[in-house]
Design a protein that fits this description.
This protein has 712 residues and is an alpha+beta fold.
């Protein structure tokens, strides 16, 4: 298919040079030919064609050739955007500042992560009191191209041994390496094929980890749905690792961890991403068995601390916004649980450290933190630096000081040292970023969705921005899996703001901002609520003159990629640009890949019932691209090593759009090589990707001449 491209008339914006208007020019974009197969599936008597099924085969040379040809077209298009290099240069400059994590104490050392600025991966340092910091693990040395990342690091209680996991090419499959923490010498052979796992030591003898059997077929796309918990004893081969849970009981997600006092093994077992069984074992006697506390999947439970026979559990049992309860080990049944920190109208996230419990509440997606004693008595509300997101307030019970971080959309994350005995805090690390935070503001609004539900949204922009409908705007959303979008600083977003852009984040139903009820209101047969919330957010931005359809882009990743795909196919008139990233886009087959079946709680499956199939089919982006409809300019992004949401979703959606698009708006797919779902992506690749995304977005809004030379 061929489409004609032209440079549209530019408008005057803070990011434009003067009153420049583009000379119209045309170019021809020829998409690679995508062969149509004859595959037809039958769902409850309805035949559904799947012409691009062959793109699901990630080991096929035909798929490989298709990826190469699509990337060639995409890069050829992007190469003609005159200011792409300007955006990349400015983002690189902004990104180049020192970044730190909060320290944690293991043995005689404080360990912390640091990035000098543009390093592809953060480096793990350690430091003794009064001594210079030294490099402990540098994942930038793990591979020449920076695509091998450090994902999990777990120390023994005495800090003398450490197990760490690495990911290659962005894959969720991990390798685990065990070393002597003092000498950094490797102690034994690498543990392989570990996936969706914590690493939890028991004494100095070994550790627990989780994984699936390696699937038949492609390890990047084949179904994996029986998770198991293993125990690895040091000095023994992986082949002799003991299966602790999951050998006979089929569960998709199994996690095991040891309590801080090393007395109990706790096992969370789940069939989906919501609701879990809870098991516990007293490790004091080798003959003890795992004891089942909760044998259903109706609620979420997690043991957060233990003190002798008393255990503390975070739960949403009879408490949709969560609470903390206690129970005695010899009476662990939920009917014997007692309230410790009760439920409130706001969603609770609990942490422990220095002998205290810290309750972080989300109040309209903004953090408030309260400190409680080990008796459950309120000690104080902790004063935060402003309105935004806090994290941390965690550590060992013997710690005397703790750390927390604070950030929002205009404030880079800073680290604070907290004295829990006094409730006082002081700045520990503040980044030096070349972004003038004081020049920008965030405004929280509440708008009405289609059914009248009030939905919060935070809109960030430069002070003095004129609300005339001509501001390039990115509307971002997620809306699923009980995940909350809270204010967080990003160099990517800062670059967008500097160019005069508006950045809006809507807290849609399906997320966790208002607890279990808010989450359930965006699942299965309620999923359309999420899309309606997003559409209403776009309409609010347009009606209030922050932007107009001509200058609106919508963006989201993973479940948010589904959000973008569904929104653009339902309301293609609403936006100028659509940016679905690593999206779940084939709703009839998502559950047949990797661990996708575990998403059934949120989505339902096409095999579940005729009614559920019809509902999914009605909004599935791949199946709702219509012939001769003018869809927005679209750039689909994915990674060839994404084994969480397999790239076939994106491949099939792009092929459908390219085949059926009416008009001149381009449909491109950008496929990152040696990259996965996002975690561990090298900084260099991230900068390249967002320079491409922003230049594509602005170019298709008609903006042809930028000034990114910002003086700081």
């Amino acid at each position: 298919m061929k489409v004609k491209l032209h440079l549209k008339s530019a408008v005057l914006l803070t990011c434009l040079v003067g009153n420049t208007y583009a000379q119209k020019s045309t170019a021809t974009l020829t998409y690679p030919e995508t062969t149509k197969g004859t595959t037809i599936d039958n769902y409850f008597g309805k035949e559904v064609a799947d012409p691009y099924r062959w793109l699901e085969d990630d080991r096929s040379s035909n798929t490989e050739d298709w990826v190469k040809s699509q990337n060639k077209v995409t890069q050829g298009y992007l190469d003609h955007i005159p200011y792409r290099d300007q955006i990349k240069e400015r983002m690189t400059k902004l990104w180049n500042y020192e970044k730190y994590s909060s320290p944690t104490r293991h043995g005689d050392y404080d360990y912390f992560y640091k990035n000098d600025g543009l390093q592809n991966q953060y480096v793990l340092f350690r430091q003794k009191e009064g001594m210079e910091a030294e490099v402990f693990l540098d994942p930038n040395t793990f591979s020449e191209d920076g695509t091998t990342s450090l994902s999990d690091v777990s120390f023994t209680k005495d800090g003398k041994k450490v197990a760490y996991a690495i990911s290659e090419g962005g894959s969720d499959w991990r390798k685990v390496i065990v070393i002597d923490a003092l000498s950094k010498e490797i102690l034994e052979d690498t543990i392989k094929d570990v996936k969706f796992s914590a690493l939890s030591w028991y004494k100095n003898e070994g550790f627990y980890y989780s994984s699936y059997d390696k699937p038949d077929g492609s390890e990047l796309s084949a179904k994996t749905d029986q998770h198991k918990l293993y125990y690895h004893k040091l000095g023994t081969p992986q082949s002799s690792d003991q299966v602790i849970f999951g050998l006979d009981t089929k569960r998709r997600y199994v996690f095991g961890y040891i309590t801080e006092d090393e007395r109990y093994l706790v096992v969370n077992a789940a069939k989906s991403t919501s609701g879990n069984e809870l098991y516990i074992k007293d490790l004091g006697n080798p003959k003890n068995e795992l004891k089942c506390l909760v044998n259903n999947f109706e609620n979420d439970h997690s043991v957060i601390f233990s003190k002798g026979d008393l255990l503390y559990v975070s739960t949403n049992l009879d408490a949709p916004n969560k609470k903390v309860m206690t129970f005695e080990f010899d009476k662990p049944e939920p009917e014997n649980w007692k309230d410790f920190i009760g439920e409130t109208k706001d969603v609770l996230n609990i942490s422990t450290g220095a002998g205290y419990f810290f309750a972080e509440y989300m109040i309209d997606a903004i953090s408030k933190v309260f400190q409680y004693s080990d008796k459950g008595n309120l000690v104080r509300e902790i004063k935060l630096p402003g309105l935004g997101s806090s994290s941390g307030f965690s550590g060992k019970m013997k710690d005397k000081t703790l750390y927390f971080s604070f950030t929002n959309y205009t404030t880079p994350s800073s680290i604070y040292l907290f004295d829990p005995s006094k409730g006082s805090s002081k700045l520990f690390k503040k980044p030096e970023v070349g972004f003038k935070s004081d020049d920008y503001e965030s405004k929280q609004v509440f708008y009405a969705s289609k059914d009248g539900t009030k939905v919060p949204m935070i809109i960030t922009f430069k002070k003095g921005t004129k609300l005339d409908g001509n501001n390039p705007t990115i509307l971002y959303g997620y809306g699923g899996f009980n995940i909350s979008l809270t204010p967080t600083f990003s160099i990517v977003n800062a670059t967008w703001l500097e160019m005069g852009g508006v950045y809006a984040v809507a807290n849609l139903r399906g997320g966790g901002e208002y607890g279990k009820a808010w989450h359930e209101a965006g699942t299965q047969m309620n999923k359309q609520n999420v899309f309606d919330d997003f559409i209403a957010a776009a309409e609010y931005l347009i009606n209030e003159k922050y932007t107009s359809s001509k200058f609106l882009a919508i963006r989201g990743g993973s479940n948010g990629g589904l959000l973008v795909g569904a929104t653009m196919t339902q309301r293609p008139d609403l936006m100028q640009v659509a940016l679905p990233a690593v999206g779940v886009l084939d709703m009839l087959r998502y559950h047949t890949f990797t661990a996708g079946a575990g998403w059934g709680h949120d989505y339902g499956t096409s095999e579940q019932s005729e009614e559920m199939f019809a509902y999914l089919y009605n909004y599935s982006p791949v199946h709702n691209v219509k012939k001769d409809v003018s869809y927005p300019a679209t750039m689909v992004t994915t990674g060839d090593h994404d084994d969480r949401v397999v790239p076939a979703h994106s491949f099939k959606f792009a092929a459908e759009l390219q085949d059926k698009q009416k008009g001149d708006n381009p449909v491109l797919i950008r496929i990152e090589t040696q990259a996965g779902h996002g975690a561990g992506t090298p900084v260099s690749k991230t900068i390249d990707q967002y320079a491409d995304i922003f230049s594509f977005t602005l170019f298709n809004m008609g903006i042809t001449n930028l000034n990114t030379e910002v003086k700081n």
